[in-house]
Amino acid sequence: MSGLSYVSRFLRGFLVVLVLVLVLAPAAQADVRIKDIATFEGVRGNQLVGYGLVVGLNGTGDRLRNSPFTQKSIEGMLERLGVGNLSEDEMKTENTAAVMVTAMLPPFARLGGTLDVVVSSLGDASSLRGGTLIVTPLTGADGEVYAVAQGPIAVAGYAAQGANASIVEGVPTVARIENGATVEREVDFAFSSLDSVRIALRVPDFTTAERVEDVINNALGPNTATALDPTTIEVRPHDKSDMPEVLARVESLRVDPDSVAKVVIDARSGTIVIGSDVRIDKVAVSQGGLTVMVREDIEVSQPEPISIGETVVVPQTTVAVEEREAKFTVLEGDVSLQRLVDGLNAIGVGAAETISILQAIKAAGALHADLEII
């Protein structure tokens, strides 16, 4: 009896330890879905473009003298509508503007579906606010018409002008029409006729491609996926009867993507993005600055009342030099992202100085990452 009690207590203790291990075990690294890092070859949108006219503008349209293509378009439109030929002197409208209309035809768009379109002025119109786009065919790269756009446009920006001042907010010569185009032609694409599907990674990487291959083979069976190169993984499902279901399962699988260490710098805005895998060898960094300020003040010298003289402009120039004390900071070997940021903050530098420091460290061969300046 005592032996059974000992075994029972041992089993209960083992179960408690097992539960604690499962509960207290560290969570796995957050993975991403395949659909978020890759696309299926052949499943893509198509750009559409068209030329049209916007009418109903309140005197902010193209000036026909500067935009002869607008005049020709108006003449052609009126002729199609049964209006006789008009001379150049009789056509002086400023309520019409020539525009380019662009849209993106999504994959598997069907007849009767709607698209959002962007309307952009082509001539010298000052604003498209309040206008209406006349029926405009939208063609693809093959020259075929895939959609037709028409409707009132919505402008986000505005422009106001007076005799001596003007103000412009946003871009009033670019507008949108929500659901402004109707699909007239479909792009044929049948999944059922495919024997295999290729997955294209948005960021090519051999490690990520191998991980995607392993995840798909574990979920759909061995030899289902094969990594062809750092961008392409070919999927040959054993059951090809329901290809959409197979792709739905594939795109929902989760994988841990890998990426190269990179530092991205936007010199115009002073934005710096440092990846988590960036490493720096042991270096000593010193940053000192010399600031020279030149200020020009304009003063006016006038003659005394009831005297003969002229009013002259007298410039006053002030030059000041400010030198900041340089400090050395030693960055130890194999510096992580946090220690790198702490070290740069210890020097007390701004974004512009940090950009120069990173470029100098890269030139010294101590920055083990791609330095990309945009």
UniProtKB/TrEMBL annotation:
GO terms for molecular function: structural molecule activity. Pfam families: FlgI. InterPro entries: Flag_FlgI (IPR001782). One of its GO terms (cellular component) is bacterial-type flagellum basal body, distal rod, P ring. It is found in: Bacterial flagellum basal body. Keywords: Bacterial flagellum, Cell projection, Cilium, Flagellum, Periplasm, Signal. It comes from the Bacteria. The keyword Iron does not apply. Belongs to the FlgI family. Assembles around the rod to form the L-ring and probably protects the motor/basal body from shearing forces during rotation. HAMAP family: FlgI. The basal body constitutes a major portion of the flagellar organelle and consists of four rings (L,P,S, and M) mounted on a central rod. NCBIfam families: PRK05303.1. This is Flagellar P-ring protein. It comes from Tranquillimonas alkanivorans.
